Amino acid sequence: MSTEDLNRFDRILAMLVHLQSGRVVTAQELADRFRVSLRTVYRDIRSLEASGVPISGEAGVGYVIMEGYRLPPVMFTREEAGSFVAAEKLMQKFSDKTLGAYYASAMFKVKSVLKDIVKERVTSLETQVWVNSDMKLFNDASPDALDVLFESIAEKKQVELKYQSMNSELTERIIEPVGLFIENNFWYVMGYCHLRNDYRQFRTDRMVQIKRTDLYFEKEHKDVEHHKNSDDNCEKTKVVIRVDKKILKYILTGRKYYGFVSEQDAGDKMEMTFMTNSSFEGLSRWYLMYGDCAEIVEPDSFREKVNDLLNKTKENLEYRFDG
Fold first, then answer.
1. pLDDT truncated to tens, each residue of the chain (323 aa)?
2. Can you tell me the distance from the alpha carbon of 115 to that of 197, in angstroms, rounded to the nearest whole number?
3. CA 132, CA 151: separation in Å to the nearest integer?
4. CB-based burial of residue 93 (10 Å sphere; 0-12 exposed, 13-18 middle, 19+ buried)?
5. Computed from CA positions of residues 99, 105, 107, 109, in that sequence, does the dihedral angle turn out positive or negative?
6. What's the Cα-to-Cα distance from 186 to each of 128, 164, 215, rounded to whole Å?
7. Rounded distance, CA 319 to CA 311, Å?
């Protein structure tokens, strides 16, 4: 058998596994993944059908394997099995207890079908990979938040929240979760909030309580990427600051979370430009961490915001000393 035949065999087998995902897969999606033409995809689909695989669908619409058809146990390569270790460690640190338990159960099943030599490789890797996170991702009162949200998104059912804002205000919300994402090392859910009649982001560690409901979504929602892009495209305000070069190494990673867009050399300082929302809430607090080594170039409204925070800090300090 030629190398070309082997490559095609591997591709068709991988395509079969892809189709077993249980959802409609377009020809373009298969072409993009396997880096082949649509014509090649159509030919490979015909080959699978000819071998007895019951594929439902047609060109231009999508393909799915008919319910009830299953492959024999899948064999994993050493590299594929090794990738599970990284995923397992991340799941242990960045998922809630319920989802973590589900994943651990799934990993036992995966490991049970591995060859002995691959099992040994996985075992040796497990003891040598360590993921540390000091962030509190979930509230102690709602440790299964991710599990509830996953179920809500899949079944299109609303959830009830008791949510604590950054200023500790507690509100009750009914939301329709659209999707989940990690940003600034925290889990967020993008959802339609019935209290605000608009889309909002909710941090999982501020969910004091979360409950399932039997109420179905009242709206059709676009995916989380659409809503994130909409948020990114909302009106922004330009902020320019100059930072002493001696502290650059401390702020290079953090600045990206506050709308950093560019920088330019300004002698012994580095001039940085940010595009942020007009409340300046996050950027102003971040700036204060380095305020002794930074100056505000523009706008005056940002300078006023920082000054307000400084005055409130001073008041708090004076109250503490007077008491």
1. 445 555 888 888 888 888 876 678 888 888 999 899 989 999 999 898 888 888 887 656 788 888 776 655 566 778 888 888 888 888 888 888 888 888 888 888 777 777 778 888 888 888 788 877 777 888 888 889 999 999 999 999 999 999 998 777 899 999 999 999 988 778 999 999 999 999 999 999 999 999 999 999 999 999 888 887 776 666 789 999 999 999 988 888 788 878 899 999 999 999 999 999 888 988 999 999 999 999 999 999 999 999 999 999 988 887 655 55
2. 54
3. 27
4. middle
5. negative
6. 25, 15, 28
7. 12
Number of neighbours of residue 321 by Cβ within 10 angstroms: 7
Torsion over CA: 203, 208, 212, 216 (sign)? negative
Please tell me the pTM assigned to this model. 0.58
The residues, any chain, with a CB within 8 Å of residue 218's CB and separated by 6 or more, are: 158, 176
3-state SS string for the chain:
CCHHHHHHHHHHHHHHHHHCCCCCECHHHHHHHHCCCHHHHHHHHHHHHHCCCCEEEECCCEEEECCCCCCCCCCCCHHHHHHHHHHHHHHHHHCCHHHHHHHHHHHHHHHHCCCHHHHHHHHHHHCCCCCCCCCCCCCCCCCCHHHHHHHHHHHCEEEEEEEECCCCCEEEEEEEEEEEEEECCEEEEEEEECCCCEEEEEEHHHEEEEEEEEEECCCCCCCHHHHHHHHHCCCCEEEEEEEEHHHHHHHCCHHHHHCEEEEEEECCEEEEEEEECCCCHHHHHHHHHCHHHEEEEECHHHHHHHHHHHHHHHHHHHHHHHC
Residue 141, Cβ neighbours under 10 Å: how many?
11
